């Protein structure tokens, strides 16, 4: 990795900012290192990549927006907590989905977890004690069948949105 040229401004004490000139590659502070600088208040300001190159999401911003909207509407309209998990579930997919549901703690009773593992071609729906009174097994199975039909048409996001909508419709509106 190439290093940039550092030009000290003669302010080496804490609380002073060292001037950095940009050269090819990375800027470096002689005291604090790469992309770090002591600010006038004495704090260390550091620039860093938030996402590593390996942590790219498989969804576009518009797809994430659709999923977020479906989850938000389902929660708002029903008063239940809908959670969507997309990723590997392993060979014991049902147990893993139940673990995800249990991890919701105090909210587990009124929660619905939809766990989708595209690579393993598995969909699991787990309901809590309260949510299972409003979403029976038949309704959950119908939602899973609808999702799977969309997945077969290569519409992962559309299938998840439709499944969440079906589950929310079955649960009905929040009771005050």
From TrEMBL:
Span list, region Disordered: 1-28
Gene3D superfamilies recorded: 3.10.310.50
Cross-referenced InterPro entries: DUF5130
Domain of life: Bacteria
Protein name per its UniProtKB record: Uncharacterized protein DUF5130
